[in-house]
Amino acid sequence: MFDVGNRIRQLRKEKGVTTTQLAQHLDVAQSFISRIENNTKKCSLENLDKICSFLGVSFAEFFSCDDPNLSFAPLDITQFSLDKNNQALIRLIQSMKNYGYSNEVISEWIQSMHSSLIELGKKYGAAPDKDRGF
Question: Which of 28, 36, 83, 123 is buried most, with the most CB atoms less than 10 Å from its CB?
């Protein structure tokens, strides 16, 4: 599993940024940054976006790394998450999680959207890409 906290620490140190400086930029306590880096606190997508911006790295750079101990996800999922065209969808799903929706509810919502897209495709002549499992 990808170690978000360790990756933040690694990039922060490479950029010569202290936890205090990063905390001030995010308007949080320094201990909040330490807990994220020590993986005792999860980093929200919103905070990760702010951290990446402050450190001057894109999500693609954040999640790409030569260290095999920091492997993240299968290539197709990684590519999906790094595609800027998908960031709004990822943020929407994250906000659903933040509002307390379960994975099951989110999955049902995605399946419903998928079914609707298939119906629209049939109606207007577009077809889902069968090679991608849709």
Answer: 36
Residue with structure tokens 């320094």? 30
| pLDDT of res. 134 | 46
Residues 5, 43: contact at Cβ < 8 Å? yes
pLDDT of residue 33: 95
Whether the full predicted model's pTM is greater than 0.70, yes or no, is: no
Q: CA 118 from chain center: how many Å?
A: 27
Tens digits of residue pLDDT in 80-89: 777 778 888 8
Q: Does residue 85 sit in helix, strand or coil?
A: helix
> Rounded mean pLDDT of 21-43?
93
Nearest to 99 by CA among 86, 87, 109, 114: 109
Extents of the domains making up the chain: 4-73
Q: Note the residue count of the chain.
A: 134
SS (H, E, C) 16-78: CCCHHHHHHHHCCCHHHHHHHHCCCCCCCHHHHHHHHHHHCCCHHHHHCCCCHHHCCCCHHHH
